[in-house]
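Hi there. Long-time user, first ticket. I'm pasting a complex I've been working with (about 297 residues overall). I'd like to know whether the download I got is complete or cut off, because the file seemed smaller than I expected. Thanks.
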Amino acid sequence: MVTISLLQMNSVGEACTDLKREYDQCFNRWFAEKFLKGDRSGDPCTETFRRYQRCVQKAIKEKDIPVDGVEFMGPNKDKPES
Amino acid sequence: MDSCLSSSESMLKHYKTSYLTVSFCLTQLCVCVSTSTHVLTEDVVYREVTADNRLFSRRLLMKTNRLPRWAESFFPGGMSRSVYIIEDSIVDPVNRSLTTYTWNLNHTTLMSVEERCVFKDSAEQPATTQLKREAWISSSIYGFSKPIQEFGLARFKSNQVKAMKGLEYALSNLQGETPQRLLRDTVKDASEKAKEAAKTLASAAAVPQKPQQYV
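Hi, the file is complete. Here it is re-exported in full:
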């Protein structure tokens, strides 16, 4: 099973790109090898995710990006299934 | 002029649905669907595995803003070249579906684009995956909503072509074949299989869906 990342992307926080890629690598492996196969054993990426989030959430705040305030899949709720 | 009235007059929502049948097995492939060439940054800002083993994710994407000249002239103060986009997604490995919902955070006065993509196993063509992609495009600039929406729709269509090319490229890298041959061959295989299936089935599917039908 393969997960594809077509490009190595950067983070919106310039200082966070390395942490982001470290997390992405961990996540991609867990996603393909565990999650998609229905393996519910623990998530090995919590620590690397925490480090990455500390950095990127700070950058988001500094750049005033209005990420919060919309419920997950929020606008989708108004859209009927077609 | 009542500003409330004028903004509701110009807030036309355009809704387009397109279906595309892509021949790859959902079990063999999970592709990153945001394959736009203008995305500069991509960040996961929230992620959760739910009790029923679905994966919820929120991503923040930053793209450059590619406005045509005529649109730029309406913003004499200049406008930020960065467009921020949120993509919420749900991966359901049990029901074998991927749903993404995408919208832009800024530049919404000029143009608001919301998009929903649902990848599911195709009922009509077994062993293929169907992508249903819908977009809602609106603009609240009084008097200019129609040309902006036309522009938005045209760009949506051309982005769709690019996104499909990106998908073809990803598939070809996976399977080691050249992109065009892969999709054309698999489309041909799928339609031949569909013909056979239609002959043996008592009733054909109600919705006629041709492969690679773009709106």
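A couple of notes from our side: The longest helix of chain B spans residues 145-175. The radius of gyration of chain B is 20 Å.
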